[in-house]
Amino acid sequence: MSVDSRPTLSAPDDDPWLWLEEVEGARALEFVERQNQLTLAKYGGAAFERDRDLLAAIFDRPDNIPYVRRRDGYLYNLWQDAEHPRGLWRRTTLAEFRTATPSWEILLDIDQLAAMEGNDWLFSGASSRPGSTRVILALSRGGSDAVTLREFDTDTRSFVVDGFFLPEAKSSAEWVDADTLLLSSALGEGMATSSGYARSVRLWRRGTGVEQAPVVFETSADHMRVYSYVDNTVPSQRIWFIDQTDFFNFRTSLGTTAGATTTLDLPSNIWMQTHGDWLSVKPRETWSVAGHTYEADAMLGMSLSAFMAGSRDFTVLFEPGPRRALQGFSWSDGKLLLSILDELRPVFELCTPSASGWSRQKLQGLPDIGVVDVWGLDAHESESNGDLLANVQDPLTPPSLMLLERGVGSPVVLKQAPKTFNADGLVVTQHEAVSVDGERIPYVQTGPAGVSGAAPVYMTAYGGFGLAVRPQYNSSLGKLWLERGGTTVQANLRGGGEFGTRWPDAGRYAGKKLSHDDFAAVAADLVRRGVTTPKRIAAQGGSNGGILITNMLVRYPERFGALFCTIPLIDMRRYTKLLAGASWIAEYGDPDKPEEWEWLKTYSAYHNAKPGQAYPPILIATTRRDDRVHPGHARKMAAKLQAMGYEAWFYEPAAGGHGYGKDNKERAGFQVLGFQFLKEKIGWRDGEA
Fold this sequence. Notes:
Number of domains: 3
Pfam families: Peptidase_S9 (PF00326), Peptidase_S9_N (PF02897)
Number of strands: 39
Distance between the termini: 42 Å
Structural class: alpha+beta
Strand content: 25-35%
CATH architecture of the largest domain: 3-Layer(aba) Sandwich
Helix content: 10-25%
CATH topology of the largest domain: Rossmann fold
Strand order of the largest sheet: 32-33-35-34-36-37-38-39
GO cellular component, one term: cytosol
GO molecular function, one term: serine-type endopeptidase activity
Low-confidence stretches: none
Protein name: Peptidase
Shape: globular
CATH superfamily of the largest domain: Alpha/Beta hydrolase fold, catalytic domain
Mean pLDDT: 97
CATH class of the largest domain: Alpha Beta
């Protein structure tokens, strides 16, 4: 009997499952409802409910760290728990925050608002202006990237009558003054790029309709997006306009409310920030200019006014190495903070410019192992006094939130997260696998000391967009996998940003297939080292990691016992036509160009899946309100695999956006469903290991 395995590599556009791309289509929703019922009937029983409630209770703990940013002397936080699943937007003072049980002023109860207005509201951020009580709140329906913008007064704790209001769209707003916004929005005819983001910046004055707001900056529809930034770090306000061509390339212009006046003479693939009269840039490629050659991934600094006058005599503030890379940089009270990974060890330096040159110092008192993040406490650089926050953790040590006063004080613990699982007898070790081309691929293993030869292993990785992944404290895996005798593994694949531009570039375009080889090499290394067997390896990946997991299914099925694929990108033939897909061409390539489809088809698992193979069981899960990665990817892959007779399960809750749920209970349920599936399919009962 023949099996319909369309679409295929020989006929990539012969797709019988296109109807599943209709997000709210009646037939598609019938498919989703039927699949959800089957999956929950199989994996949503008493054990699921027990673990979901156990995990949700951890997420809802009153002693979890409330992460904050400071604006106008207040620390702001969004707090979610069992009583307030959507969250409380609230604020307090630093002095109060230092106490064991701070007193908070509730500004907005999101659950109350959602109930009152009959809408599925979630809080998605606030845009403020120094010295003003007025903010623009972004409210999302069910977690989508598209938001509704509404003006809110923090003093009266109410929405402003006849204030700024913008219906749902992918939008952001910057305050120019009390009565004027710079609006970047895809709302309106012709206002969206092919990626679905804002094509223009509009000057929107109070009391006028958005349709009357003049366009002051715009780009062509094939660019990714445009946005603006109002800079108050100088006495006379200045405005930056950014035309983002693709994920890695930008054109930055200086201007006024009338629009851009001067485009900075910089390569498009440079990341830059300014503060006062100082300019900091990080080139992605070697840059030769005015008799100087600057290395890719270096950190360069100079006077902005000197740069605008024609000088290119930068001071080199950071030099990269083969495994030493700058992860990020930001300004705080006139000092440039550099976040560095040196052989995956965290290092932080402050560079201070002056008329006589730059001085530098290493932040003291922070660990040089584990996971450390440092950022400015203040949301607005113009308000900063240099106070920094640091978050310190590792797979077995819960996070500590620390304050470094003015960036030079010894770290003081503000809040300590609770231990949420028993780590007795567990160890963290670092290893390297050798990939198909000889490259060393680092990975971190957490679990019982020694090797058993049959450990139940949970593997995960990302490998894309220059994003470095690090071994953080994970309550979900700790409580439901490690505490019960399992082992976890996190791999640092090419495509990520752990080792500078060479690492993500090696895993882009045609190299994405190499990134997948890296993950398979780690799985093989676990077996080689005697940790486990292939049938006892469960692997999970989401978003870009969805390409990874489905390629393990079709390219390396013999190395895994079960796979969990979440909010995934899978169909590489049509991804640019679905929601924000066109914005990722710089990472993957353009399937409409024959020469680029040649490499894209090598890792389009949707087209490479064929009947008669020994594929491991897979659960594919997405959310209906994901307006970034289209849920059609997950739906179509599950449908095709099932039609070919494979064990492929599917789950799609109605809300969650590009995430696992709109509240702690939904997020817990999404994860636990995956754990239940993976454990059963690798033949592991809790506590057996």
